[in-house]
Amino acid sequence: MFVYNHKQSEWRELAAMKTARAMFGAVVHNGKIVVAGGVNEEGLTAASEVYDFGTNKWETFTDFPQERSSVNLLSNEGALYAVGGFTIIQNDNKEVVPAEVTDVWQYEEDKKEWSGMLREMRYAAGSSCVSLRLNAAKMTKL
After folding, report:
1. Are 103 and 120 in contact (CB under 8 A)?
2. What are the pLDDT digits (tens) for 51-90?
3. What's the confidence (pLDDT) of residue 101?
4. What is 92-131 written as a DSSP string?
5. Helix, strand or coil for residue 76?
6. In CATH, what number is assigned to the domain containing residue 27?
7. In 8, 52, 71, 83, which residue has its Cα 20 to 30 A from 128's Cα atom?
8. Which one-letter DSSP state was computed for residue 134?
9. How would you write 6-72 as a 3-class SS string?
C-alpha cells in the first residue's frame, strides 16, 4: 500500500496486505482501513483484513461469509456494512458461473461476525445517502 503526500508531491510505501488481492471492498471504519473479499491468484477470496494507521500493520479481520469480489463496504455511525458484489455459483446445468449478488450484510462488533440483513435488492434499484439539514421555512414553494 502507498500513501501520497500532496504537500511534498511524493508517494511513500506502507505495509503490504497479508493477502495480495484485487477487486476488493475497502472503507475507513473507526479510524482503520477495512478490506474484504477480492480476487487473488487462487480465485475469489473471503479473507478480510484491517489496517492500523498508528502501527502501520495489517491484522486479520473476520472473514466475509462468502468468497466474492467487488463487494461495497460502507461505514455509518460506527456500523460496518457490506453490499453486493460478484461470486461463483453452480447453475441448474451444474456449470460453475459468475453471478451478481445483491444482498446486504452488517458486521456485529460485539459478536465479531457478519450477519445478513437483506437477502436481495430489486434489480436496477439504486440508493444514495446524503447527510444534510433542510430548513423548510426557507424553501421556495413548487
Report:
1. yes
2. 999 999 999 999 999 999 999 999 998 899 999 999 988 8
3. 87
4. TTS-EEEEEEEEEEEEETTTTEEEEEES-PPTT-------
5. strand
6. 2.120.10.80
7. 52
8. -
9. CCCCEEEECCCCCCCCECCEEEEECCEEEEECCEECCEECCCEEEEECCCCEEEEECCCCCCCECCE
Closest to 122 measured CA to CA, from 91, 106, 100: 100
Half-sphere exposure of residue 10: CA atoms within 13 angstroms, side-chain side: 3
What's the CA angle centered on 50, arms 44 and 51, to 5 degrees?
120
Amino acid found at 42? E
Q: What is the pLDDT of residue 2?
A: 92
Structural domain tally of the chain? 1
Q: For residue 89, what pLDDT is reported?
A: 82
Who's near 111: CB < 8 A, 6+ residues apart?
Answer: none
Q: Position 7: which residue type? A: K
Residue 96, C-alpha cell as written in the block: 460453475
Q: Is 49 exposed, middle or buried (0-12, 13-18, 19+ CB in 10 A)?
A: buried
